[in-house]
Amino acid sequence: MSKESALRAMREARYSRRAAAPAARLAPRMPEKAEETVVAAPAVSADGLCGHRSMNGRTCTREHGHEAKSHRYS
């Protein structure tokens, strides 16, 4: 079997699997058990700064609740 015919067979198998169960993919998923989500209030640092953490561990040095879209990290 050539590489092209193997890819074609895989594609046809995938298509037939998807065509066999279209209702399962299109049905909305409802959670079985409703869970309460607790949203924590953002912590305000003692010095009044934003305190947003970047992915590499730096913290924002703008004032808490700043209107700017970007953060200043140091």
Q: How many runs of DSSP E, i.e. beta strands?
A: 0
**Biggest sheet layout:** none
Tally the helices: what do you get? Answer: 2
Rg of Cα set: 25 Å
Biased composition (Low complexity): 18-29
Biased composition (Basic and acidic residues): 1-15, 60-74
Region (Disordered): 1-32, 48-74
Protein name: DUF3761 domain-containing protein
Topology:
Elements (H helix, E strand, L loop, with lengths): L2 H18 L1 H5 L48
Protein name: DUF3761 domain-containing protein
Organism: Nocardioides panacisoli
What does this entry look like structurally?
This protein has 74 residues and is mainly alpha-helical. The mean pLDDT is 77. It has helices at residues 3-20, 22-26. 31% of the residues lie in helices and 0% in strands.
Describe the structure in brief.
By secondary structure, this protein is mostly helical. It has helices at residues 3-20, 22-26.
Characteristics of this structure?
74 residues, 0% strand, single chain, elongated
